[in-house]
Structures are given as C-alpha cells and as structure tokens.
Design a protein that fits this description.
The protein has 308 residues and is of the alpha+beta class. 33% of the residues lie in helices and 25% in strands. The protein contains 8 helices and 13 strands. The strands form 2 sheets. Strands 1, 2, 3, 4, 5, 6, 7, 12 and 13 form a 9-stranded mixed sheet that branches. A hairpin with a 4-residue loop joins strand 12 and strand 13.
C-alpha cells in the first residue's frame, strides 16, 4: 500500500556537546552536514524511493563530511590508524549487512549494503571485508583519505593526557539514519570511525545488528550512538523494537525507557527511531546530539544541543 507519507531521521553522534564548546564554524558546518544528509534522503523518499536507498544516501553524505566521525572524518586508533565500521538493515525482510575495521572503502555503508545484498553473510571484517569491497567494485581510497588534522590533534591530546583507549571529549561521533518510505517499509543505517585512541582491534556497537542498528517492519528502525560497550550489553536497538512490538509502546516511550536503562548500567548516548506509521523520536542522555528530521508533511528540523 502506498500512502505518500514518509519520514527520515539522521544523527551525527551524541555526547558532551555544550553551547560554547563548538566554534561558530563547527556549529554551522555540522548543521549544514545534517541538512545535506536530510536533503539527500528526502529527495528519494519524496519520489517514491525505498527507505533502504534513503538511509544509505543520507549516511553517505555524513561519511563524506569531515565534521562527523565516520568516513572522511573518522578518528584514529591509538596506533594512528583509521578503522571504520558500518551496518545497514532492511525492515521488510530483516536482511542486514555489516563491516568492521575496514580501511580502504570510501563509504563503508555501501560495503555493509553489499555484504547484505551480495554475500551469504551478515558481517565481514578487516582484510576480508576490504577484499570483498574490491571484488564488488566499490570506490577504494588510500588510508590517508580518512585522516584529518583535527582528528590527529585529538589523538595527540589523548596521549598527552595519558588517557588510554578513551575519547577524552566524550563525543560519540557515530552517524546514522532511519526512514520509513511511502510503502511503510523501514530501514536503518549506522557508520562510525569508533573511539579516539581505541586499542586491540576494539569494535563498538555500530556494526552490531541489534545493538547499534536494527530495523523491523513489525516495530521500527533504530540507529544508535554512544558508549558502544553498554549498547552491546543491552542490545539497545533490538530492545527498543521488541518493546514496541510486544508491549505496544510507542517510539518515544520505548526509546526513553531503554536509554534510561542504559544509564542505570553506566552508559550514555542516544538513538533515533521511526515506526512504519511515520511516528518518530530522538532520545538521548547526553547534553547534545547532532540530529535532524524531515517528513512528507514538510517538517525540516536540525539541532545539536539538548535545549533545542
């Protein structure tokens, strides 16, 4: 059934994002990046495109933007390497694809989608994922494509303060998108460079189906950002969908409940959620979250701080 209604939400990470902490240029650049992501996905949805295509298009824009910790602007590991993770999921079939610690694919979200559509697997990692990417003909880049001066400065600051394997700014820079299209199908995509100074091949929640990403037409689509270890332990994305499907909770009630439970475990972060009926929500326990929403009703909303 087609009802001409659609909804798209995006996020660019959550954390200790306070007014005055960002320069005017950083604030403006982030808002512009979120707006471009919404425009890319909205154009597809408005023309009858799929939720899957819309979330991929939105996340590509965020991966290409140096203001966000995904793709081009990814943070460095402790060893000074950029290792990228991504996942994508389709609500109609519950097919999913994910990649972890890839180093050569310009847009990891496209590699995650290729894993879903052109392999028998859900997740590939490291050299194998990069090899599969080449076989699929995806655009390859040298590792220095992902390296930016600001992310290197953040790593140097972390090392100077002897804060091993932890993001000193408490900014979880994952990006993501969720959408419902005119056919009522939902999809979710998530992409990240991980945590500044991560060590020992650490992988967070972003490529973990059910933790940082989930989509199910019976409930909702979710993309998460935050302290990944806690999101994995709680299975945040699936937990929200399960509450909506089995308890009949709406998106806001389910998301707020799970984010509260996350806090009780000691984790912080946020989620974006949309249901097949177009209802949607942002829920986060941090001072700010880069976020935006666009709908077929004409809503266009972009925000950074918690009081917006």
């Amino acid at each position: 059934m087609v009802d001409n209604k659609w909804t798209l939400l995006v996020h660019g990470g959550a954390g200790r994002i306070l007014r005055g902490a960002l320069s005017a240029g950083q604030d403006e650049g982030a808002r512009e990046g979120l707006t471009k992501a919404l425009e890319a996905g909205s154009m597809l949805l408005a023309n009858g495109g799929s939720a899957m295509d819309a979330v991929a298009a939105a996340v590509i824009k965020l991966e290409d933007d140096v203001h966000f910790n995904a793709g081009r602007g990814s943070v460095f590991t402790y060893e000074g390497i950029n290792e990228l993770d991504a996942s994508i999921m389709e609500g109609a079939t519950r097919r999913a694809g994910a990649v972890a610690a890839v180093r050569h694919t310009r847009n990891p979200v496209l590699l995650a989608r290729a894993v879903m559509e052109h392999s028998p697997h859900v997740m590939l990692s490291r050299d194998g994922a990069d090899a599969f990417s080449r076989e699929q003909g995806l655009e390859q880049v040298e590792p220095n494509y992902f390296a930016t001066p600001e992310r290197w400065r953040q790593l140097e600051e972390l090392k100077a303060n002897k804060l091993d394997y932890y993001d000193i700014d408490m900014k979880y820079g994952t990006v993501g998108a969720v959408a419902v299209d005119q056919h009522g199908n939902v999809a979710a995509a998530t992409s990240t460079g991980g945590l500044t100074g991560k060590r020992w091949g650490r992988i967070g929640d972003s490529p973990i189906i059910g933790a940082g990403n989930y989509a199910d037409n019976r409930a909702c689509a979710v993309s998460a950002t935050g302290a990944g270890e806690f999101f994995i332990r709680l299975g945040v994305a699936h937990e929200i969908c399960a509450r909506m499907r089995m308890l009949g909770e709406d998106a806001k009630l389910a998301a707020d409940h799970v984010i509260t439970e996350l806090g009780q475990l000691g984790g912080t972060g946020g989620v974006i959620v949309t249901a097949p009926d177009g209802t949607s929500t942002f829920s986060f326990s941090t001072p700010g979250m880069y976020r935006g929403r666009a709908t077929s009703d004409g809503e266009k909303y972009v925000a950074i701080y918690g009081d917006e």
